[in-house]
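can u pls check wat happens w/ alpha-D-glucopyranose
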Amino acid sequence: MINVLFATSEAHPLIKTGGLADVSGSLPAALLAAGHDVRLVLPAYPQAITGASPLTQLATLTLTGCNDPVTILEGHLPGSNVTVYLIDAPDYFRREGGPYSQPDGNDWPDNADRFACFCRAVTSIALNQAGLDWAVDIVHCNDWQTGLIPAMLVDSRQRPASVFTIHNLAYQGLFDQSQFHNLDLPASWWSMHQMEFHGQFSFVKGGLVNADWLTTVSPTYAREICTPQYGYGLEGLLSHRSGELTGILNGIDTDIWNPEKDPLIAKNYSAKTLERKRQNKAALQRTMGLAVEANTPLLGHVGRLVEQKGVDLILDLLPALARRGAQLAIIGTGDRHLESALRKASRHLPEQIGVALRYDESLSHLLEAGSDIFLMPSRFEPCGLNQLYSLRYGTPPVVRHTGGLADSIIAATPATMARKTANGFVFNDTTSSSLLDAIDDALTVYHDPDNWRQIIQTGMTTDHSWNKSATHYISVYEKAIDRNDNKLNL
Ligand code: ADP
Ligand code: GLC
């Protein structure tokens, strides 16, 4: 049995801005089910305090660099047996707003202080110095908010091994040199061999340089980030460490994302009762203000409205989609320009284009169930979860060939159709005309009921649970432990 401290800045259902929360809310439970002692640690945001209650106060720590004493609270992750430690630093985390940004959408100005304090508290638990009497074997860190932990561990002789998972290299936690000085961290960290990055202080480099093992969330993204196109200047460092960098495709929580039992959709269905999916389509059309038409193809999209996701490519196609008589339903928040372009389009063609410019977990389930086709034209996509949810909900995805999309979607071609392995539609170039070609392919098959049913069945009956990937993480933990032991024995 491996004792794993899983450090993250968000976990569903406690707090969520994107896929990191889905992974942090489901991978620990899968590892626990495989017989390991996995405990989550995250900041005590107000939503997390409410969600993880009842809470027990375990210890109060005075940590260098943190404004006030920090309390460790113990609760549990709803819907699971996973223990959750909440790092209660009220000055930093008990705020109304998002985990990283203020209610107006701008980043919290003291994010460096907030997450440095979080990292110090996690390090103290990891080193068994927080009075919890629990010997950690592995600290599993996720994204830049946890990047300093592997660096804080390296000088201790009694340290656990560390694994750092990259969920999205576009977010690196970069701060000014003056902020670095305020954090009261070792001066030696201001070096290009450590966390200095082109004149800024980089949290993510703390993990990339110091963790015993690196992972990212798909094999293709693991290769992509070693190239200039996707590496954001970190490709040299990542290539250097490519022997200790493993791509493991995310799984999904098959209890939460299960069309047979999902309480958030209009009618439950399975691969055997697909005709019931139509009632979800009608409910989605009604909810989004679209014309309720059973035979009109309905294309859906859910996601953060940022450049990464390629929603601008969809926007360019609105006239072409209207000419094809297709409907479009989009749920998302983010970039103001994209939001206003979507709002305008839906005002112009209300029966064909429906938008919900908000974060709506429950509507996202109905959209997965009610759409005919799911669009994911991402410029890059480390893994992507919505294409996996789409497969399970019998809504074939149209995706760009990148990252986890390339690793999970098998394009429909005569050969893959014959082998019954096709589960979606794939395009290569980041252009709206390539996206349109793939949508046209999807619409052609959509109008061919036998082939359409086959693509749906393939997606719905493939195993996308954590089973396989959790086993990969366990073997990564073992490698990280070996590597750490070797370093300690030098
Ligand atoms: P990313 O982590 O880059 O945002 P993923 O596809 O891995 O992309 O995960 C996104 C998660 O966030 C999915 O669970 C998706 O349904 C959810 N999501 C994103 N935007 C919204 C929204 N506006 N409303 C509801 N859920 C959303
Ligand atoms: C990131 C990525 C997304 C991935 C998610 C969970 O936010 O953008 O592709 O699925 O993390 O790993």
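The longest strand covers residues 298-305.
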